[in-house]
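Sequence design from tokenized structure. All designs in this work follow the same two-part layout: the structure record, then the generated sequence. An example of the structure record is given first.
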């Protein structure tokens, strides 16, 4: 039961991704880093237009390990009405200093996805245990340096299986992303995360900062079997 997450930067791309069958429309600005934030007014507009048609997540930006600033951005993003708020745990300080604050956000009913980075060093067991104790909704493994290679250049299949299995046993949603191509899909489906995330593979000329291309989106969607068991909130459209 693996779904497709499509990262988009504006209303036009979000609508294209939703109509193209993305299971989660993920709002982030690729020009501003690994988890660059989309302007809040854009998030509000997309949620207003698409909330009943698809699940929506949004990043809060590549933020330093300042728990107060992170909490402020999490609250603002959640107030826009997204289903999931994605927060990058870029360092050990993020894990130790910010997870207690994120726990307070989770207790308010905010579904937070912690994003970890395969091109950095971290203790998988410790971080997943900490995320679970904080009451977060899930974990995603991505890459921070988009010029440093794909997820599968930083983690082998056994490491990815371990990550996903540990997270699943902890009751967390799981996602894998990081400069993935259509050729990676068959391998990652065997790992069985809840979601596989794409940006570069969806864009014209396979440029991350380019525009989402309808045909590229269609090709990725076709490569991932549709799984009705996923928590869709999509309605039929004419």
């Amino acid at each position: 039961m693996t779904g497709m997450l499509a990262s988009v930067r504006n209303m036009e791309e979000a609508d294209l991704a939703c109509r193209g069958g993305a299971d989660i429309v993920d709002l982030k600005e690729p020009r501003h880093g690994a988890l660059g934030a989309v302007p809040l007014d854009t998030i509000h507009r997309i949620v207003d237009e698409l909330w009943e048609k698809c699940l929506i997540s949004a990043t809060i930006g590549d933020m330093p390990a300042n728990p107060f600033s992170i909490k402020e951005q999490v609250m603002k993003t959640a107030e826009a009405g997204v289903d999931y708020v994605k927060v990058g745990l870029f360092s050990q300080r993020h894990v130790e200093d910010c997870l207690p604050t994120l726990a307070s956000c989770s207790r308010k009913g905010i579904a937070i996805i912690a994003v970890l980075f395969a091109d950095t060093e971290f203790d998988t067991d410790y971080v997943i245990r900490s995320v679970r104790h904080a009451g977060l909704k899930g974990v995603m493994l991505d890459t921070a340096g988009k010029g440093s290679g794909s997820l599968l250049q930083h983690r082998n299949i056994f490491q990815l299986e371990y990550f996903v299995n540990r997270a699943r046993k902890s009751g967390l949603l799981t996602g894998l992303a990081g400069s993935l191509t259509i050729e990676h899909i068959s391998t990652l489906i065997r790992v069985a995360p809840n979601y596989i995330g794409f940006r570069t593979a969806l864009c014209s000329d396979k440029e991350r900062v380019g525009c989402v291309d309808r045909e590229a989106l269609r090709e990725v969607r076709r490569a991932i079997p549709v799984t009705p068991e996923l928590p869709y909130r999509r309605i039929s459209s004419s």
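The beta strands are 3-8, 24-27, 55-59, 84-88, 112-117, 138-142, 173-176, 195-198. We note this feature because it recurs in several other targets discussed in the main text.
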